[in-house]
């Protein structure tokens, strides 16, 4: 977009990542004049979601570009040499490295045998008798029930002990679906995330979406399964008993262990009101505290790695807080602690950008700052020069780490290795989405895996997407090498027709391990700037954090907003269209805080709040009835 823009703004925001978009929407919501820029042609930055071809192209762009010497003559013409200095941005700094993507489907796939096809059709659907987690209701606008996956759409088997053998047309059709051509013909059906994260049902993001009414732009699905890797007697995935129902239905723990587990989970959920329960362990590790409660090694594994999701070295108070966060989220929207954004995490920054646009924000993609104009007397950024050469004034500049001058850049402090797999079947027998925790066992580095079902609109109906992530240090090793041991344990092989090991994992898929059809590996880096050399009114947003949820990003956005507007409310509720009543300018009965053309906009809140926070349920009216808190 090379059009001439208004040249004076209250705040300019560079980068459309989640944190930047939340701040931009919050500032526009209270009437600030905001300009939002991004060098890419899509929203989201490092929080974006891509279709298959778009993601492969993004991985090809991961090569760090050489330092560019900008032609600053045109920019310098717009600088007052006596009062200002121009600080150039040499290039858009890359935060995604070492990207690669490869499809493992061979050109010519032999058609499945009749025996294989019949076996697939006989596959048992639903929840086995020893299932730990019942399928929960879906969170979508079409009122579907369950997180339906490809395993729920098998063909009907005829009774009387006679199975209709598939015709040659059926075999040919199945063979076509296993071809490379078919896989890439579905490229628009994929939504692959650079930064996959789960929403805790009572986490910061869910509460913000409800309070601000941004939830009306989004749809959600439950992530119902929680699995963990255990090494005894051999490495395998087992379901984690989290809720009361899970615990008492579990065949993995004894009756004594069930009572102990219920007791410790109750303690964790109410630890703030019962400090005597952990007295003397405040400065000791969470693991030592659990040992003092006579928990077995198996129960400690469940709590530390799958419920609290901390390490063996975590202090007791931090472990209790993390456990309480999980347990309080459990059951709010079905038998699950987590939600996944339908169509991927990339929908979240777009939703907040949409809010900003509704309240007057200006958005320009393919346009970005190439330098700061800094006042010599105040050391404040008074304007930027953008990529079209236009000078744009601002009182405040908010930028991510991609648009910093060399004097403010440091080595990145945080690095995360990521892998994305497209597989032919689910880890869960019922085909639902699940979270998998990988503790540091069997020479495997600790990691999280999130398997997303096709019901979340991230892949075609007969495939699944698995996101893997682990914290790493800067090294010469490829990201793929970081996940090699995990792949050997969890997956059967690459491509269709791979040799697969049989295993019995409770509600995990008992039939066979998933095969990797397509895989991508890359690294992401953040926290690489020096704020001491920054102009006084420039605020820097850090990249995505290595955490499963969004709490740190939301806290950062709230803190940035309060620096700029300390006395204003952060993201007050936006009205629904039907709540907006238009009055003439001369109408004195309407006290308004916003304008639209020549008319004032009067907002009447139609909710009924009984004083106990029950209005939250009404604020979910734009989401399906199934997500209302029970």
What are the main properties of this structure?
630 residues; alpha+beta; Guanine Nucleotide Dissociation Inhibitor, domain 2; 17 helices; 21% strand; disordered C terminus
How would you characterize the overall build of this protein?
- This protein has 630 residues and is α+β, with helices and mostly antiparallel strands.
- Among the domains are: 8-95 and 345-411 and 529-564, FAD/NAD(P)-binding domain; 110-177 and 414-525, Guanine Nucleotide Dissociation Inhibitor, domain 2 (2-Layer Sandwich), CATH 3.30.519; 577-627, no CATH class.
- 24% of the residues lie in helices and 21% in strands.
- It has 17 helices and 25 strands.
- Strands 5, 9, 10, 16, 17, 18, 19, 20 and 21 form a 9-stranded mixed beta sheet that branches. Strands 1, 2, 4, 12, 13, 14, 15 and 22 form an 8-stranded mixed beta sheet that branches.
- The longest helix is centred in the middle third of the chain and has 15 residues, at 255-269.
- It is globular.
- Mean pLDDT is 81; it is low at 111-168, 500-506 and 590-630.
Quick structural overview:
The chain has 630 residues and is of the alpha+beta class. It has 17 helices and 25 strands.
Which CATH class of the domain at 8-95 and 345-411 and 529-564 is shown? Alpha Beta
What structural category do the secondary elements indicate?
alpha+beta
Relative helix content: 10-25%
Uncertain segments of ≥5 residues (pLDDT<50)? Answer: 111-168, 500-506, 590-630
The fold-level CATH name of the domain at 8-95 and 345-411 and 529-564 is FAD/NAD(P)-binding domain
Superfamily (CATH H level) name of the domain at 8-95 and 345-411 and 529-564: FAD/NAD(P)-binding domain
Task: Report the sheet-strand fraction.
Answer: 15-25%
What is the gyration radius calculated from CA atoms?
A: 26 Å
User: Would you tell me the overall average pLDDT?
Assistant: 81
């Amino acid at each position: 977009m090379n059009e001439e823009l208004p040249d004076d703004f209250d705040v300019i925001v560079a980068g459309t990542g989640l944190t930047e978009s939340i701040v931009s929407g919050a500032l526009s919501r209270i009437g600030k004049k905001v300009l939002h820029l991004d060098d890419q042609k899509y929203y989201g930055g490092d929080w974006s979601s891509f279709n298959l071809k778009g993601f492969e192209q993004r991985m090809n762009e991961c090569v760090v570009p050489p330092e560019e010497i900008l032609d600053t003559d045109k920019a310098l013409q717009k600088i007052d040499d006596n009062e200002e200095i121009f600080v150039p941005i040499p290039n858009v700094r890359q935060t995604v490295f070492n990207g690669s993507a490869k499809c493992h489907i061979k050109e010519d796939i032999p058609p499945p045998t009749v025996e294989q096809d019949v076996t697939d059709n006989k596959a048992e659907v639903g929840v086995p008798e020893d299932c730990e987690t019942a399928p929960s209701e879906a969170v979508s606008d079409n009122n579907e029930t369950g997180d339906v996956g490809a395993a729920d759409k098998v063909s009907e088997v005829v009774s009387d002990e006679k199975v209709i053998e598939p015709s040659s047309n059926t075999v040919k059709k199945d063979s076509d679906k296993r071809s490379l051509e078919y896989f890439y013909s579905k490229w628009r059906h994929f939504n692959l995330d650079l930064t996959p994260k789960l929403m805790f049902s009572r986490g910061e993001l869910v509460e913000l979406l409800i309070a601000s009414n941004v939830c009306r732009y989004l749809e959600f699905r439950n992530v119902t399964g929680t699995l963990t890797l255990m090494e005894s007697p051999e490495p395998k995935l087992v379901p984690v008993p989290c809720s009361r129902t899970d615990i008492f239905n579990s065949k993995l723990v004894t009756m004594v262990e069930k009572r102990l587990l219920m007791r410790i989970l109750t303690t964790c959920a109410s630890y703030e009101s019962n400090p005597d329960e952990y007295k003397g362990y405040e400065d000791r590790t969470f693991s030592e505290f659990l040992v003092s409660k006579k928990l077995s090694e198996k129960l400690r594994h469940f709590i530390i790695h799958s419920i609290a999701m901390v390490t063996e070295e975590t202090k007791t108070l931090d472990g209790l807080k993390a456990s309480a966060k999980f347990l309080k989220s459990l059951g709010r929207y079905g038998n699950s602690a987590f939600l996944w954004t339908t169509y991927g995490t990339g929908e979240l920054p777009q939703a907040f950008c949409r809010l900003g646009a509704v309240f007057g924000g200006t958005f320009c993609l393919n346009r970005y700052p190439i330098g700061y104009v800094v006042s010599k007397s105040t050391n404040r950024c008074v304007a930027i020069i953008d990529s079209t050469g236009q000078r744009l004034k601002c009182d405040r500049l908010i930028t991510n780490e991609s648009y910093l001058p060399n004097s403010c850049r440091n080595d990145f402090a945080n690095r995360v290795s990521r892998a994305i797999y497209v597989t032919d079947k689910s880890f869960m027998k019922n085909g639902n989405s699940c979270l998998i925790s990988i503790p540091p066992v069997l020479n495997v580095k600790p990691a999280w895996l999130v398997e997303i079902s096709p019901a979340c609109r991230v892949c075609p109906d007969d495939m699944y997407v698995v996101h893997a992530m682990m914290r790493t240090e800067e090294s010469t090793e490829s990201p793929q090498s970081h996940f090699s041991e995990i792949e050997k344990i969890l997956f059967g092989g690459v491509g269709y027709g791979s040799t697969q090991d049989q295993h019995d994992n409770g509600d995990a898929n008992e039939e066979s391990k998933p095969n990797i059809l397509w895989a991508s590996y890359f690294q992401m880096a953040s926290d690489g700037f020096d704020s001491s050399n920054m102009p006084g009114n420039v605020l820097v947003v850090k990249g995505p954090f290595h955490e499963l949820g969004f709490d740190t990003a939301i806290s950062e956005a709230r803190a940035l907003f309060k620096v700029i507007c300390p006395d204003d409310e952060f993201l007050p509720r936006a009205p629904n269209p039907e709540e907006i009543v238009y009055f003439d300018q001369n109408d004195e009965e309407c006290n308004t805080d916003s304008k639209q053309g020549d008319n004032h906009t009067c907002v009447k809140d139609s909710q009924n709040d009984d004083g106990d926070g029950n209005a939250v349920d009404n604020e979910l009216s734009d989401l399906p009835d199934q997500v209302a808190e029970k």
